[in-house]
Design a protein that fits this description.
By secondary structure, this protein is an all-alpha fold. The chain is built from 14 helices and no strands. The longest helix has 16 residues. It is globular.
Length: 270
């Protein structure tokens, strides 16, 4: 079913930052977005510093949730997240500056503020590169690709992604979200009529260890692809996993679950 026991365990242990971080991620795995925001925000108690301590990056991750377009966000919530992103303090670790700027650009795109996204991209493009890294340039290219897609040019967006060098040291890997990058590339491949090439990008170990927020949507998108390719058994497998993962998701996410349940019933012949 894909339901981790860690949620139950975390509820029995003291509210340490590390455990709150795990609980917030499990919330996202299950589509409990409101609970995830609450659990992750509690770690920093409203602070704005991005630190290297366990749980310290929740100040970054809480607004990051609102960049993910499969989670609903109200205009007020999005405005609040954009304000939080602008206030993020990277003084203690300037290497996290590119990720902060990328977050600002992604939230601008979610708000359909292309000028704001382009401004964030320009800042990223002007940043000196971190040692042994291409993170600033690669994140700038991702913003460029997303801006191009927002303007309706998926082919140019994919071409921009192809310019990335992907030199991401381990110390920066938590702020260069590989799951997000893979999902975006996969979505472009589907739009361009190349769904088979998207399959391995959506699979990639289900993402539970790297970012559980992507697990359920990944299975939904795999179900949709296999369904479109006429592979009934694989479509059933992935639709069923998606429905299980989000079986008790927030009400805002229920319509997507119900559509998958209906298609699952059709494929099973019920």
């Amino acid at each position: 079913s894909g339901t981790p026991d860690v949620e139950t365990i975390a509820g029995l242990l003291p509210p340490l930052p590390e455990l709150q971080q795990v609980k917030g991620m499990v919330d996202l795995f299950h589509g409990h977005v409101k609970a995830a925001r609450r659990d992750l925000a509690a770690i920093t108690s409203g602070g704005s510093a991005i630190s290297a301590t366990p749980g310290g990056d929740s100040a970054y991750y809480v607004p990051w949730i609102d960049t993910l377009d499969y989670f609903d966000v109200t205009p007020a919530q999005l405005a609040a997240s954009r304000a939080k992103a602008m206030r993020l303090d990277v003084t203690a670790d300037p290497s996290r500056g590119p990720a902060r700027q990328y977050l600002i650009g992604r939230l601008a795109l979610r708000a359909r503020d292309l000028k704001g996204a382009e401004a964030a991209m320009a800042v990223l493009q002007a940043m000196p590169e971190l040692p042994k890294s291409s993170i600033a340039a690669d994140l700038a290219l991702t913003l460029k690709a997303r801006i191009l897609l927002a303007k309706g040019d998926a082919a140019a967006a994919l071409a921009a992604l192809d310019q990335q060098k992907i030199r991401i040291p381990d110390r920066l890997s938590d702020l260069y979200n590989h799951a997000d990058q893979n999902f975006f590339r996969a979505s472009l491949l589907v739009l361009l009529g190349r769904p088979r090439e998207a399959i391995p990008l959506y699979e990639m170990g289900d993402y539970f260890l790297s970012d559980p927020a992507f697990c359920a949507p990944g299975n939904l998108y795999l179900g949709l692809i296999y369904d479109s390719l006429g592979d009934k058994d694989r479509a059933i497998f992935h639709y069923a996993r998606f429905v299980s993962m989000w079986s008790n998701a927030d009400p805002e996410l229920r319509p997507e679950v119900e559509r998958a349940q209906a298609r699952l019933a059709q494929l099973r012949g019920h």
